[in-house]
Amino acid sequence: MRASSIAFLLVTFLAMLSPAAAQNAADKPKRFAPLTMESLNTYQKPLGEQIMKVSSVGLAGPYSPLLRSPVLGQRMFDLLYYLRWNSSVPLRLNEMAILIIGRQWRSQVEWFAHAPLAIKAGLSPEIVADLKARKRPSSMKPDEAIVYDFVTELTTTHKVSDQTFARAKELLGEQQVVDLTTVSGTYVTVAMILAMAEEGVPAGKEPPFKPGED
Predict the structure, then answer these.
(1) Average pLDDT over residues 169-181
(2) Contact 167, 149 (CB under 8 A)
(3) This prediction's pTM
């Protein structure tokens, strides 16, 4: 049998499996049962009320597991609140860092929630598309380039070179370097929580990463 014929049969077979795999995933019980405001206990409700004011996914996403540990959940919420709305890092760069982490972890929820926010904050759609394709964006501004290099270097090599640190300090300043490091590490934690809980995008929404898309 010719190689092209074998390849065609393989693609056809995988295509036939995809609906079944999707159905199996849909039928699998959630690791954490969905929560509503009415189902929250006395310790969870104050946090739930804060979450509902800012969350694009309601009590789902990382908040569903975090509400199971409400004291930790409150600490995480406060940290996330600072990093999202009070950080010294400009919102455009902050969201770019979150997308870099979300793509490294292939986090459906992080990308679903933050790609639109990044574009709204001024990050170009071309840069977002390149990040999604796991490419180093080619049309970055100097501050975007150092965010990409700094976050990527720190998360993949577990260190930052003197050259990269000097560029970051010159372009961003000391406080932004610290805040940039912290938002990156925090969203690794968020990605881990989402992966552990197998949290997906809201029902009826298309996951940003397709099967086989590394």
Answers:
(1) 99
(2) yes
(3) 0.86
